[in-house]
Amino acid sequence: MAAETVDGSALAGRALAAAGARHMFGVVGIPVTSLASRAAAAGVRFLAFRNEQSAGYAAAAYGFLTGSPGLLLTVSGPGCVHGLAGLSHATANAWPLLMISGSCDQADAGRGDFQELDQIAATKPFAKLAVKATTIADIPRLVFQALAAAVSGRPGGCYVDIPSDVLHQTLPESEAADLIAAAAAAADSAASNPSPPKQKPLDEGIEKAADLLRRAERPLVVIGKGAAYARAEAAIRKLVDTTGIPFLPTPMGKGVVPDSHPLSATAARSLAIGQCDVALVVGARLNWLLHFGEPPKWSKDVKFILVDVCEEEIELRKPHVGIVGDAKRVIELINREIKDDPFCLARSHPWVEAITKKAKDNVVRMEAQLAKDVVPFNFMTPLRIIRDAILAEGSPAPIVVSEGANTMDVGRAVLVQNEPRTRLDAGTWGTMGVGLGYCIAAAVAEPERLVVAVEGDSGFGFSAMEVETLVRYQLPVVVIVFNNNGVYGGDRRGPDEITGPFKDDPAPTSFVPAAGYHKMMEAFGGKGYLVETPDDLKSALLESFRARKPAVINCIIDPYAGAESGRMQHKN
Fewest Cβ atoms closer than 10 Å to its Cβ: which of 140, 321, 328, 542? Predict the structure, then answer.
């Protein structure tokens, strides 16, 4: 009787399962269809998408939500190229992801084989590690190596290339088990005995940070999505509560400390960053989202304490104090240091009073706008209704996915996050097209939570066919499309722009007016709603939230509400 054998597809699936993978996103075809099936048989659920870009964005978001690498599977050549969107997005946002692609037979490389591409060269600019399995025996070792690299240091994307001939190679069952066991043992050994970091001792930076915060007159804690990724919420909440220091979250840092916390400076952002004298920045880069930490938005005299897992980031920004380390661990150590010589800014402290007064005044002004029922809808009225419906869900809070120009910008101010990792948006790159992929990732990563996407019609269009994926897997996702007839709101050209031989063409920003996006969902068997009034929207949200089934709510917005480029007009 011949010994049982295992092919490369089965070995890859088993290696992923042995490494702890639970979900994989992708599009199957030559040569990876069997790999997807074999992985599923080994215990890795495969979510089949309609487009590799959306699958890649799903894998990226999954890495953020779970702390484990999201898995992306693509075919060779063009499939790999489509997958670069998710790979690069994950690396830009510092989220762990492993992309696996099939590739052409090694013997035919360089001869114009089917979908031939040098995929190692294509992925290297976007990956922390890009490696190729040249024989079946390489697969387990490279899978474990890439998964470890994706989460080490600053997280990011990694790539494993498995040629078609390697996927079809076989080896005995016993040898397959030995290879997986050896790869797992090597990974465990590397994790138990990491290379000593080339960085200053933590103690020195911790002491300096605590002393600087203690002596500051106008301190501020800035919370980035890296803090959310690091599960630092308990430590940061303790720091804020025990010291009385106001905090400012970045968009995806919202919820690490609840937005409803009295020390939130979100509604006083300009005052907080413009006048603080010491800023403890946790898990956020001083990039465009934080105005590079430079005047005129920031005071020229502000002293930054920068906490980041990446030493290169510290060296680039040159803060007053730089601490290289995991956000949760570092803040716990700062808390311990402060405990030995405690301090707390009273609510009557001039800085705290100034922040809370400014925030309260701005909230009162915004609430006055939100209280009005404006029809045809502006952005404020439906966002208020959506906010209230989401808050009514209580805990576990729904995960909010937000993309678009005005939709995302206004939504950031209106929608409330009181739990960590419950807001997903365009991220560091300002990437449009992430919406439906994010939704699917959130639904499988956090199955106890409802997922609510608040999408501009342009952002929705990038990944709209994934509504079929929602229906196929019956995921609890409600997609609300803010339909204002196009990018920023349809045709906003001046007379000097409507000239030339193609002046009768639709504007580059225009879509079909009042498009029936809800009917796309209905076509696949999901629930669609068309809403134009507050009562319509309230009814649709109540019904769809209760059902926890795939739904699209097509919310008609006044095309002239909102601004071109959202809040980025100066860049366009």
Answer: 542
User: What residues contact 35, with CB distance under 8 A and at least 6 apart?
Assistant: 8, 9, 12, 13, 73, 100, 102, 162, 167
Helices marked H in 493-558: 517-523, 534-547
Q: Where do the DSSP E strands lie in 116-223?
A: 129-132, 157-163, 170-172, 219-223
SS3 state at 304? strand
> 567 in helix, strand or coil?
coil
Q: In what order do the strands lie in the sheet with 45-48?
A: 45-48, 23-26, 70-74, 97-103, 157-163, 129-132
Alpha helices in 244-283 (DSSP H): 269-275
Strands (E), 309-450: 321-324, 399-403, 423-424
Half-sphere exposure of 343 (CA within 13 A, CB side): 16
Q: Which residues, listed in sequence order, are joined to residue 470 by a DSSP beta bridge?
A: none
CA R_g for the chain: 25
Q: Closest by alpha carbon to 406, among 485, 478, 479, 467?
A: 485
Q: ω before 262 within 30° of 0 (cis)?
A: no
- Residue written as tokens 């830009």? 92
pLDDT at 1 (0 to 100): 45
pLDDT digits (tens, 9 = 90+) for 358-393: 999 999 999 999 999 999 999 999 999 999 999 999
CATH of domain 5-192: 3.40.50.970
Q: Give dist(CA 466, CA 476) in Å, integer.
A: 14
Provide the whole-model pTM: 0.96
Name the CATH topology of 372-571: Rossmann fold (3.40.50)
Convert the pLDDT of each residue in 76-93 to its tens digit: 999 999 999 999 999 999
Q: What is residue 378's three-state secondary structure?
A: coil
Among 139, 149, 42, smallest CA distance to 97 is for 149
Q: Note whether 417 and 397 are within 8 A (CB).
A: yes
Q: Which two tokens stand for residue 164?
A: 């078609």
Residue 522 vs residues 288, 355, 466, 513, 525: alpha-carbon distances, Å: 40, 48, 13, 19, 5
| CATH fold match for the domains 5-192 and 372-571 | yes
Half-sphere exposure of 497 (CA within 13 A, CB side): 9
pLDDT at 197: 53
Q: How many CA atoms lie within 13 A of 524 on its CB side?
A: 20
Torsion angle of alpha carbons 198, 200, 201, 207, nearest 10°? -160
Beta-bridge partner residues of 101:
74, 161
Q: What is the CATH number of domain 202-356?
A: 3.40.50.1220
Q: pLDDT by residue (tens digit) across 330-350? A: 999 999 999 999 999 999 999
What order of strands is seen across the sheet that includes strand 527-531? 423-424, 399-403, 451-456, 477-483, 551-556, 527-531
Structure tokens at 375: 């029809």
Q: Are 258 and 418 in contact (CB under 8 A)?
A: yes
Bridge partners (DSSP) of residue 129 are 158
The rounded distance, in Å, linking the Cα atoms of 312 and 321 is 14
Structure tokens at 324: 């290289």
- In degrees, to the nearest 5, what angle opens at C-alpha 141 toward C-alphas 100 and 157? 40
Q: Strand 170-172 to strand 399-403: parallel, antiparallel, or no bridges (unpaired)?
A: unpaired
Residue ranges per domain, the chain? 5-192, 202-356, 372-571
The answer to whether the beta carbons of residues 269 and 246 sit under 8 Å apart is: no
Residue 329's pLDDT is 97
